[in-house]
Amino acid sequence: MNEYRFADMESMDIEESFMLQALKIAQLGKWKVMPNPLVGCVIEKDGEIIAKGWHDHIGGLHAEQMAIADAEKKGISLQGATAYITLEPCNHFGRTPPCTEALLWAGIKKVVIGALDPNPTVRGGGLEMLQNEKFEVKTGVLEESCEKQMETFMYWCKNRRPIVTLKAATDINGRIDVDKDKPARRFSSDESLQIAHELRANSMAILVGVNTVIRDNPELTVRGLNIGPREPPIRVVIDPNNRIPTNCHLMESEVAPTLLIQNKHFDSKKDKKHVERVVISESKKIEVSKILDMLGDRKIQSLLVEGGKDTWIRFLESGLVNRAHLCVSNLELEGDVGERFDCNYLLENKLKKIATRKINNDEITIWEKYNTLN
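User: That's the sequence. What structure does it adopt?
Assistant: C-alpha coordinates below.
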Protein backbone atom coordinates (compact mmCIF):
# COMPACT_ATOMS: atom_id res chain seq x y z
CA MET A 1 0.00 0.00 0.00
CA ASN A 2 0.95 3.64 -0.21
CA GLU A 3 2.79 2.92 -3.46
CA TYR A 4 3.78 5.84 -5.65
CA ARG A 5 1.80 5.88 -8.89
CA PHE A 6 3.74 6.97 -11.97
CA ALA A 7 2.22 9.15 -14.66
CA ASP A 8 1.56 7.82 -18.13
CA MET A 9 4.30 8.60 -20.63
CA GLU A 10 1.77 9.56 -23.30
CA SER A 11 1.89 13.26 -24.18
CA MET A 12 5.18 13.75 -22.30
CA ASP A 13 7.94 15.77 -23.86
CA ILE A 14 11.52 14.50 -23.87
CA GLU A 15 12.52 16.23 -20.62
CA GLU A 16 9.50 14.84 -18.80
CA SER A 17 10.23 11.32 -20.04
CA PHE A 18 13.78 11.49 -18.68
CA MET A 19 12.51 12.87 -15.36
CA LEU A 20 10.03 10.01 -15.21
CA GLN A 21 12.93 7.57 -15.39
CA ALA A 22 14.59 9.41 -12.51
CA LEU A 23 11.36 9.09 -10.50
CA LYS A 24 11.18 5.36 -11.13
CA ILE A 25 14.72 4.61 -10.00
CA ALA A 26 14.28 6.80 -6.91
CA GLN A 27 11.85 4.13 -5.66
CA LEU A 28 14.77 1.74 -5.21
CA GLY A 29 15.61 3.53 -1.97
CA LYS A 30 12.11 2.96 -0.53
CA TRP A 31 12.05 2.40 3.27
CA LYS A 32 15.84 2.77 3.60
CA VAL A 33 16.59 6.50 3.26
CA MET A 34 14.52 8.07 6.05
CA PRO A 35 14.73 10.80 7.19
CA ASN A 36 16.13 11.74 3.79
CA PRO A 37 13.76 11.84 0.80
CA LEU A 38 13.71 9.45 -2.13
CA VAL A 39 15.78 10.99 -4.94
CA GLY A 40 16.65 9.72 -8.42
CA CYS A 41 19.02 10.98 -11.12
CA VAL A 42 19.59 10.03 -14.75
CA ILE A 43 22.29 11.54 -16.94
CA GLU A 44 21.54 11.96 -20.63
CA LYS A 45 23.77 12.68 -23.58
CA ASP A 46 22.81 12.79 -27.26
CA GLY A 47 19.29 11.63 -26.42
CA GLU A 48 20.31 8.52 -24.45
CA ILE A 49 20.57 7.76 -20.74
CA ILE A 50 24.24 7.00 -20.09
CA ALA A 51 24.22 6.79 -16.28
CA LYS A 52 21.76 6.58 -13.42
CA GLY A 53 21.76 6.75 -9.66
CA TRP A 54 19.49 6.95 -6.64
CA HIS A 55 19.76 7.59 -2.91
CA ASP A 56 19.87 3.96 -1.81
CA HIS A 57 20.14 4.16 1.98
CA ILE A 58 20.80 6.62 4.75
CA GLY A 59 24.50 7.47 4.79
CA GLY A 60 25.00 6.25 1.23
CA LEU A 61 25.79 8.24 -1.91
CA HIS A 62 23.27 10.79 -3.06
CA ALA A 63 21.54 10.12 -6.37
CA GLU A 64 23.77 12.52 -8.36
CA GLN A 65 26.92 11.05 -6.85
CA MET A 66 25.84 7.49 -7.63
CA ALA A 67 25.03 8.46 -11.23
CA ILE A 68 28.44 10.08 -11.68
CA ALA A 69 30.10 6.99 -10.17
CA ASP A 70 28.07 4.82 -12.55
CA ALA A 71 29.44 6.77 -15.54
CA GLU A 72 33.01 6.58 -14.22
CA LYS A 73 32.68 2.82 -13.76
CA LYS A 74 31.57 2.52 -17.39
CA GLY A 75 34.38 4.78 -18.59
CA ILE A 76 31.91 7.31 -20.00
CA SER A 77 32.73 11.02 -20.15
CA LEU A 78 30.04 13.33 -18.78
CA GLN A 79 31.36 16.46 -20.47
CA GLY A 80 28.41 18.35 -21.94
CA ALA A 81 25.81 15.91 -20.56
CA THR A 82 22.47 16.75 -18.91
CA ALA A 83 21.49 15.56 -15.42
CA TYR A 84 17.81 15.03 -14.56
CA ILE A 85 17.33 15.09 -10.79
CA THR A 86 14.03 14.75 -8.91
CA LEU A 87 15.19 17.11 -6.11
CA GLU A 88 17.34 20.23 -6.12
CA PRO A 89 20.98 19.21 -5.54
CA CYS A 90 22.37 19.93 -2.10
CA ASN A 91 25.03 22.61 -1.69
CA HIS A 92 26.15 21.82 1.86
CA PHE A 93 28.30 19.29 3.66
CA GLY A 94 26.35 16.59 5.50
CA ARG A 95 27.07 12.88 5.49
CA THR A 96 28.43 13.46 1.96
CA PRO A 97 30.04 16.42 0.12
CA PRO A 98 27.80 18.85 -1.84
CA CYS A 99 26.20 17.33 -4.94
CA THR A 100 26.52 20.68 -6.74
CA GLU A 101 30.30 20.37 -6.63
CA ALA A 102 30.15 16.78 -7.90
CA LEU A 103 28.11 17.93 -10.90
CA LEU A 104 30.59 20.73 -11.56
CA TRP A 105 33.64 18.47 -11.39
CA ALA A 106 31.97 15.88 -13.63
CA GLY A 107 31.57 18.37 -16.47
CA ILE A 108 27.76 18.34 -16.55
CA LYS A 109 26.47 21.13 -18.78
CA LYS A 110 22.75 21.24 -17.96
CA VAL A 111 20.74 20.33 -14.86
CA VAL A 112 16.98 19.67 -14.99
CA ILE A 113 15.33 19.71 -11.55
CA GLY A 114 11.95 18.29 -10.58
CA ALA A 115 11.27 19.87 -7.17
CA LEU A 116 13.07 22.57 -5.21
CA ASP A 117 14.25 21.64 -1.73
CA PRO A 118 12.28 23.38 1.09
CA ASN A 119 14.75 22.19 3.74
CA PRO A 120 16.15 25.28 5.56
CA THR A 121 19.70 23.95 5.09
CA VAL A 122 19.23 24.12 1.30
CA ARG A 123 16.35 26.40 0.28
CA GLY A 124 17.58 27.51 -3.11
CA GLY A 125 21.27 27.18 -2.28
CA GLY A 126 21.82 24.41 -4.78
CA LEU A 127 19.97 26.20 -7.55
CA GLU A 128 21.82 29.44 -6.85
CA MET A 129 25.23 27.74 -6.96
CA LEU A 130 24.43 26.02 -10.28
CA GLN A 131 23.34 29.33 -11.80
CA ASN A 132 26.43 31.12 -10.49
CA GLU A 133 28.63 28.44 -12.08
CA LYS A 134 26.93 29.05 -15.45
CA PHE A 135 25.09 25.71 -15.66
CA GLU A 136 22.06 25.72 -17.89
CA VAL A 137 19.28 25.03 -15.37
CA LYS A 138 15.59 24.19 -15.75
CA THR A 139 13.23 23.63 -12.81
CA GLY A 140 9.70 22.37 -12.29
CA VAL A 141 9.77 19.38 -14.66
CA LEU A 142 7.17 16.89 -13.31
CA GLU A 143 7.30 18.96 -10.15
CA GLU A 144 3.99 17.70 -8.74
CA SER A 145 5.01 14.05 -9.22
CA CYS A 146 8.40 14.65 -7.64
CA GLU A 147 6.90 16.38 -4.62
CA LYS A 148 4.30 13.64 -4.23
CA GLN A 149 6.98 10.95 -4.18
CA MET A 150 8.82 12.67 -1.32
CA GLU A 151 5.75 14.16 0.37
CA THR A 152 6.60 13.14 3.95
CA PHE A 153 9.89 15.03 3.69
CA MET A 154 8.20 17.98 1.99
CA TYR A 155 5.39 18.08 4.55
CA TRP A 156 7.76 18.09 7.51
CA CYS A 157 9.95 20.81 5.97
CA LYS A 158 6.90 23.04 5.50
CA ASN A 159 4.90 22.21 8.66
CA ARG A 160 7.44 20.85 11.18
CA ARG A 161 4.95 18.07 11.97
CA PRO A 162 4.74 14.48 10.71
CA ILE A 163 2.19 13.31 8.18
CA VAL A 164 -0.31 11.20 10.12
CA THR A 165 -1.65 7.88 8.82
CA LEU A 166 -4.32 6.00 10.76
CA LYS A 167 -4.46 2.20 10.38
CA ALA A 168 -7.45 0.18 11.54
CA ALA A 169 -8.65 -3.40 11.01
CA THR A 170 -12.13 -4.78 11.79
CA ASP A 171 -14.32 -7.79 11.13
CA ILE A 172 -17.10 -7.65 8.52
CA ASN A 173 -19.38 -5.84 10.97
CA GLY A 174 -16.80 -3.24 11.94
CA ARG A 175 -16.02 -4.87 15.27
CA ILE A 176 -12.55 -4.67 16.76
CA ASP A 177 -12.73 -6.76 19.90
CA VAL A 178 -15.39 -8.92 21.54
CA ASP A 179 -14.36 -10.59 24.78
CA LYS A 180 -11.59 -8.72 26.57
CA ASP A 181 -11.25 -11.57 29.03
CA LYS A 182 -9.86 -13.72 26.21
CA PRO A 183 -6.60 -13.23 24.31
CA ALA A 184 -6.79 -10.76 21.41
CA ARG A 185 -6.84 -12.34 17.96
CA ARG A 186 -5.91 -11.23 14.48
CA PHE A 187 -8.53 -11.74 11.81
CA SER A 188 -7.01 -10.13 8.71
CA SER A 189 -5.07 -12.24 6.18
CA ASP A 190 -1.31 -12.78 6.04
CA GLU A 191 -1.22 -10.60 2.91
CA SER A 192 -2.95 -7.76 4.77
CA LEU A 193 -0.49 -8.19 7.62
CA GLN A 194 2.33 -7.75 5.11
CA ILE A 195 0.76 -4.47 3.99
CA ALA A 196 0.59 -3.38 7.63
CA HIS A 197 4.33 -3.94 7.92
CA GLU A 198 4.86 -1.92 4.74
CA LEU A 199 2.98 0.93 6.39
CA ARG A 200 5.30 0.61 9.39
CA ALA A 201 8.32 0.60 7.10
CA ASN A 202 7.05 3.84 5.55
CA SER A 203 6.84 5.46 9.00
CA MET A 204 9.37 7.00 11.34
CA ALA A 205 7.14 6.48 14.39
CA ILE A 206 4.27 4.15 15.36
CA LEU A 207 1.78 5.27 18.01
CA VAL A 208 -0.73 3.44 20.21
CA GLY A 209 -2.66 4.19 23.36
CA VAL A 210 -1.72 2.44 26.59
CA ASN A 211 -4.92 0.34 26.52
CA THR A 212 -3.68 -1.32 23.33
CA VAL A 213 -0.40 -2.17 25.03
CA ILE A 214 -2.22 -3.67 28.03
CA ARG A 215 -4.61 -5.65 25.82
CA ASP A 216 -2.37 -6.79 22.95
CA ASN A 217 1.25 -6.42 24.15
CA PRO A 218 2.37 -5.41 20.61
CA GLU A 219 5.99 -5.26 19.45
CA LEU A 220 5.39 -2.42 16.95
CA THR A 221 8.36 -3.44 14.83
CA VAL A 222 8.89 -3.84 11.08
CA ARG A 223 9.12 -7.52 10.20
CA GLY A 224 9.87 -9.24 6.90
CA LEU A 225 11.15 -6.12 5.11
CA ASN A 226 14.62 -4.68 4.56
CA ILE A 227 14.64 -1.11 5.87
CA GLY A 228 18.40 -0.87 5.62
CA PRO A 229 20.68 0.93 8.05
CA ARG A 230 18.14 3.61 8.95
CA GLU A 231 16.81 3.73 12.49
CA PRO A 232 13.71 1.56 13.15
CA PRO A 233 10.45 3.43 13.79
CA ILE A 234 10.15 4.90 17.27
CA ARG A 235 7.40 3.21 19.31
CA VAL A 236 5.20 5.87 20.91
CA VAL A 237 2.65 5.23 23.67
CA ILE A 238 0.14 7.74 25.04
CA ASP A 239 0.21 6.84 28.73
CA PRO A 240 -0.69 9.83 30.89
CA ASN A 241 -1.18 7.83 34.12
CA ASN A 242 1.80 5.47 33.79
CA ARG A 243 -0.28 2.32 33.34
CA ILE A 244 2.10 0.59 30.92
CA PRO A 245 3.12 -2.90 32.15
CA THR A 246 6.81 -2.99 33.06
CA ASN A 247 7.19 -6.45 31.47
CA CYS A 248 5.58 -5.69 28.11
CA HIS A 249 7.49 -5.92 24.81
CA LEU A 250 7.81 -2.15 24.45
CA MET A 251 9.49 -1.80 27.86
CA GLU A 252 11.60 -4.96 27.65
CA SER A 253 12.67 -5.19 24.01
CA GLU A 254 15.49 -2.87 22.98
CA VAL A 255 15.12 -3.42 19.22
CA ALA A 256 13.68 0.10 18.86
CA PRO A 257 13.24 3.18 21.07
CA THR A 258 10.07 3.46 23.16
CA LEU A 259 8.70 6.92 23.91
CA LEU A 260 6.09 7.30 26.67
CA ILE A 261 3.95 10.45 26.47
CA GLN A 262 2.77 11.40 29.96
CA ASN A 263 1.22 14.34 31.76
CA LYS A 264 3.49 14.33 34.82
CA HIS A 265 6.88 13.01 35.82
CA PHE A 266 7.07 9.38 36.92
CA ASP A 267 10.03 7.49 38.34
CA SER A 268 12.12 6.18 35.45
CA LYS A 269 15.11 4.77 37.34
CA LYS A 270 14.23 1.17 36.48
CA ASP A 271 13.60 1.85 32.77
CA LYS A 272 15.95 0.37 30.21
CA LYS A 273 18.04 2.74 28.09
CA HIS A 274 15.71 2.51 25.06
CA VAL A 275 12.78 3.91 27.08
CA GLU A 276 12.21 7.67 27.29
CA ARG A 277 9.45 9.51 29.11
CA VAL A 278 8.24 12.88 27.86
CA VAL A 279 5.85 15.22 29.68
CA ILE A 280 4.26 17.57 27.18
CA SER A 281 1.02 18.50 28.96
CA GLU A 282 -0.36 18.42 32.50
CA SER A 283 -3.95 18.05 31.28
CA LYS A 284 -5.79 14.73 31.64
CA LYS A 285 -6.08 14.37 27.88
CA ILE A 286 -2.90 15.27 26.10
CA GLU A 287 -3.66 17.30 22.99
CA VAL A 288 -2.91 15.64 19.67
CA SER A 289 -1.43 18.87 18.31
CA LYS A 290 1.13 18.93 21.15
CA ILE A 291 2.08 15.32 20.44
CA LEU A 292 2.67 16.13 16.77
CA ASP A 293 4.65 19.28 17.64
CA MET A 294 6.88 17.24 19.94
CA LEU A 295 7.46 14.56 17.29
CA GLY A 296 8.06 17.19 14.62
CA ASP A 297 10.69 18.84 16.81
CA ARG A 298 12.41 15.44 16.90
CA LYS A 299 12.41 15.43 13.07
CA ILE A 300 9.80 12.67 12.84
CA GLN A 301 8.30 13.08 9.36
CA SER A 302 5.71 10.28 9.31
CA LEU A 303 3.53 8.84 12.08
CA LEU A 304 1.42 5.67 11.93
CA VAL A 305 -1.44 5.59 14.46
CA GLU A 306 -2.30 1.93 15.11
CA GLY A 307 -4.84 2.03 17.90
CA GLY A 308 -6.99 1.51 19.72
CA LYS A 309 -10.39 2.96 19.03
CA ASP A 310 -10.18 5.82 21.54
CA THR A 311 -6.84 6.85 20.10
CA TRP A 312 -8.17 6.70 16.51
CA ILE A 313 -11.13 8.90 17.42
CA ARG A 314 -8.96 11.41 19.31
CA PHE A 315 -6.70 11.82 16.29
CA LEU A 316 -9.62 12.02 13.85
CA GLU A 317 -11.44 14.62 15.93
CA SER A 318 -8.27 16.70 16.12
CA GLY A 319 -8.51 17.22 12.35
CA LEU A 320 -4.84 16.28 12.00
CA VAL A 321 -5.12 12.86 10.29
CA ASN A 322 -3.85 13.09 6.72
CA ARG A 323 -4.79 9.62 5.54
CA ALA A 324 -6.25 6.35 6.75
CA HIS A 325 -6.03 2.66 5.82
CA LEU A 326 -9.08 0.61 6.85
CA CYS A 327 -8.94 -3.18 6.48
CA VAL A 328 -12.28 -4.99 6.73
CA SER A 329 -12.15 -8.80 6.91
CA ASN A 330 -15.06 -10.99 5.79
CA LEU A 331 -14.66 -12.87 9.08
CA GLU A 332 -17.43 -12.32 11.62
CA LEU A 333 -16.35 -12.32 15.25
CA GLU A 334 -18.47 -14.38 17.62
CA GLY A 335 -20.70 -12.72 20.17
CA ASP A 336 -23.01 -9.73 20.21
CA VAL A 337 -20.84 -7.16 21.97
CA GLY A 338 -17.57 -5.46 21.24
CA GLU A 339 -16.12 -2.15 20.14
CA ARG A 340 -16.92 -1.03 16.62
CA PHE A 341 -15.14 1.20 14.15
CA ASP A 342 -16.17 1.78 10.56
CA CYS A 343 -15.87 4.22 7.66
CA ASN A 344 -18.49 6.53 9.18
CA TYR A 345 -15.86 7.80 11.60
CA LEU A 346 -13.67 8.66 8.61
CA LEU A 347 -16.48 10.34 6.68
CA GLU A 348 -17.58 12.36 9.71
CA ASN A 349 -14.05 13.71 10.03
CA LYS A 350 -13.85 14.77 6.38
CA LEU A 351 -11.67 12.02 4.95
CA LYS A 352 -12.42 10.92 1.41
CA LYS A 353 -12.02 7.41 0.03
CA ILE A 354 -9.52 7.44 -2.83
CA ALA A 355 -8.85 3.74 -3.45
CA THR A 356 -10.09 0.22 -2.71
CA ARG A 357 -8.16 -3.06 -2.87
CA LYS A 358 -9.40 -6.63 -2.46
CA ILE A 359 -6.79 -8.92 -0.91
CA ASN A 360 -8.00 -12.48 -0.41
CA ASN A 361 -11.01 -12.04 1.85
CA ASP A 362 -10.07 -8.56 3.03
CA GLU A 363 -11.12 -5.20 1.64
CA ILE A 364 -8.66 -2.38 2.17
CA THR A 365 -9.78 1.19 1.60
CA ILE A 366 -7.45 4.19 1.52
CA TRP A 367 -8.66 7.60 2.63
CA GLU A 368 -7.18 11.09 2.45
CA LYS A 369 -8.31 14.34 3.99
CA TYR A 370 -6.58 16.79 1.70
CA ASN A 371 -3.57 17.33 -0.47
CA THR A 372 -0.81 16.91 2.08
CA LEU A 373 1.42 19.35 0.24
CA ASN A 374 -0.99 22.28 0.62
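The chain has a mean pLDDT of 91.
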